[in-house]
Design goal:
Layout (H helix, E strand, L loop, with lengths): L1 H7 L3 H30 L3 H29 L6 H21 L4 H17 L3 E5 L7 E11 L4 E5 L9 E5 L13 E5 L12 E2 L5 E5 L8 H16 L7 E5 L4 H6 L1 H7 L5 E2 L7 E9 L25 H11 L20 E6 L9 H10 L3 E6 L6 H9 L3 E5 L15 E6 L5 H14 L3 E6 L6 H6 L4 H4 L1 H6 L2 H11 L6 H17 L3
Parallel strand pairs: 3-5, 6-10, 7-8, 7-10, 8-9, 11-12, 11-13, 13-14, 14-15
Antiparallel strand pairs: 1-2, 2-3, 2-10, 4-5
Helix pairs in contact: 2-3, 3-5
The structure holds 2-acetamido-2-deoxy-beta-D-glucopyranose.
């Protein structure tokens, strides 16, 4: 102590001010730390107490610092203006002063702040969002109890403070429009003594995500990704595996098996089949009810709850996660400037077996070769193991196919690659782009599409030039989804005019030729 006094050689007043500053900074840091800790563990009521303790401790540090400066104050006469303000302030807050025996207004401010933070730390609440155009969901904090077979989630207040009883009916599937999915009842109980089911399993520090599968997922690859994998990634990535999946509506157990590798990297815990979980009430410090689609087959970073380290999530994070999960070797498309001369980018032409076929596949493949690609025609079947298919697609730089679920495989392409969507005849651009255009761009891919003219559609031969499906696609769209689906999506094959298509292939090649790493 003496040493530092000699060294600094400053007055006691200056020292006290420095001490105060130091104390104040330390206090602020503590409060900040408290806040961060509470954010990290806001999930548990027991952490709520820890948080309160930390806040209280910060208060002590700041108050002590304050006392030291008060001793100095005697030497400094306060100027007129401040003293007038103080007295008015003192009068209005005198009752609080006396009640709490704090010495001055600064400490009073502090106390108000502490009481306020203490209040904010008490977390037993539920926030539901049912306004989204695709999904509805709730975030429940505190003492959250889940009973599987009745699909009920109860939020029990943690302290004696009672609140209003509220109830929501939530479809936990990412697409609330899907029917035949039982809704979850989310209930905020009014007080701790209200009849809450007793816990049979308590997870003290692990949150849960409750969601439904089925619906369109399981029918095709695109819906698997758009309706479950992407929304689940968004909801759970922030936990880095420390989260329990509570799954309802498991109509196809094989589906979960198919995506096992993916699911296991998002959650280290065995998933719970809620529909057969009759005998347990599982209690968590935090439960997300329902997973969300904010935009088709992509992620809106600003609306995501964050990734690891609370960074905003992007669709590029999703495809990066896929590459890690399936050990895909290529994280960037070909860079021709760095390759040996003669090396060509690889293009995968998706073969479709049933409808929306490319009638002249081989001719298109030759056109792609003429544009500078190595072209391969392959069928991408939905029943191939995901990892196997992912590896295959990852070895290409460009993916070409008629609008359909096969293009979902773009998620396995290395970033910087190209997706070419062939849009069938019938004013289908809007639908086709909604499913793949922005998703591809968000994955870091170049998106191109090619709209089929009526001459390239087999519908022309089939129906004749005078049929409304040919002459007036608008009338078909006005008539509803049934006709669109029947004609433009199911009865149509495509014979691409390779002369007309050549500029699109040239654009794709140009993109790969020009890209820099
Ligand atoms: C193919 O497209 C080219 C360029 O648009 C056009 O000139 C040609 O007539 C088309 N061929 C057929 C068979 O429609």
């Amino acid at each position: 102590m003496r040493c530092s006094e000699v060294k600094s050689g400053r007055s006691p007043k200056g020292r006290a001010q420095r001490y105060f500053l130091l104390g104040f900074v330390a206090g602020i840091l503590l409060v900040l730390l408290t806040y961060l800790v509470s954010q990290q563990f806001s999930i548990s009521s027991q952490y709520g107490d820890l948080q309160f303790l930390l806040v209280a401790e910060s208060a002590v540090v700041i108050t002590r610092a304050r006392r030291i400066t008060d001793k100095q104050k005697v030497n400094n006469a306060p100027d007129e203006e401040t003293s007038e303000h103080s007295s008015r302030f003192d009068q209005s807050l005198r009752p609080l002063f006396q009640m709490t025996r704090v010495a001055n207004r600064n400490e009073c401010f502090l106390l108000v702040f502490i009481l306020f933070s203490g209040r904010a730390t008490e977390k037993s609440k539920v926030v539901c969002n049912t306004e989204g155009s695709f999904s509805e969901s709730c975030e429940a904090d505190g003492d959250v109890r889940v009973h599987g077979t009745s699909l009920s989630v109860s939020i029990v207040p943690t302290r004696s403070r009672s609140s209003e009883r509220r109830e929501w009916r939530i479809r936990a599937h990412a697409r609330k429009s899907v029917d035949n999915i039982k809704k979850v009842t989310v209930t905020q109980l009014p007080d701790p003594s209200a009849a809450a089911p007793p816990c049979t399993v308590t997870y003290t520090a692990v949150p849960a995500i409750l969601f439904a599968i089925g619906g369109h997922s399981g029918r095709n690859y695109w819906h698997d990704f758009a309706d479950v994998l992407v929304p689940l990634f968004v909801a759970s990535r922030r936990y880095d595996g420390e989260v329990v999946f509570l799954v309802s509506n498991i109509v196809q157990p094989k589906w979960l098996d198919k995506y096992k590798a993916f699911l296991h990297r998002l959650s280290r815990y065995e998933l719970v089949d809620l529909d057969s979980d009759a005998h347990h009430v599982r209690c968590f410090p935090h439960v997300t009810v329902g997973i969300r689609i904010d935009k088709e087959f992509t992620i809106v970073p600003e609306l995501s709850p964050g990734g690891d380290g609370r960074r905003l999530l992007t669709m590029a994070d999703f495809t990066g996660f896929l590459r890690e999960t399936y050990a895909l070797p290529r994280h960037a498309a070909i860079n021709l400037a760095r390759e040996q001369p003669g090396k060509r980018p690889r293009l995968l032409l998706i073969h479709r077996g049933h409808y929306r076929r490319l009638v002249n596949e081989q001719e298109i493949a030759r056109a792609a070769e003429a544009a500078g690609f190595d072209a391969v025609v392959t069928e991408l079947r939905g029943d191939t193991p995901v990892g196997e298919q992912a590896l295959l697609v990852n070895s290409f730089d460009a993916l070409l196919g008629v609008h359909g679920a096969g293009l979902t495989n773009a998620a396995f392409l290395p970033p910087g690659g190209v997706v070419i969507q062939v849009v069938p005849y019938g004013k289908m651009e809007f639908i086709a782009r909604a499913e793949f255009s922005e998703p591809a761009a968000d994955m870091g891919l170049k998106y191109l599409d090619y709209s089929v003219s009526v001459e390239e559609s087999t519908l022309l031969e089939m129906l004749g030039a005078e049929h409304p499906v040919i002459k007036d696609p608008d009338s078909v769209h006005r008539s509803g989804w049934g006709m669109i689906d029947e004609y433009y999506l199911r009865k149509q094959d495509v014979r691409i005019n390779v002369t007309r298509f050549a500029p699109t292939l040239a654009l794709a090649f140009e993109h790969l030729r020009r890209r820099q790493q």
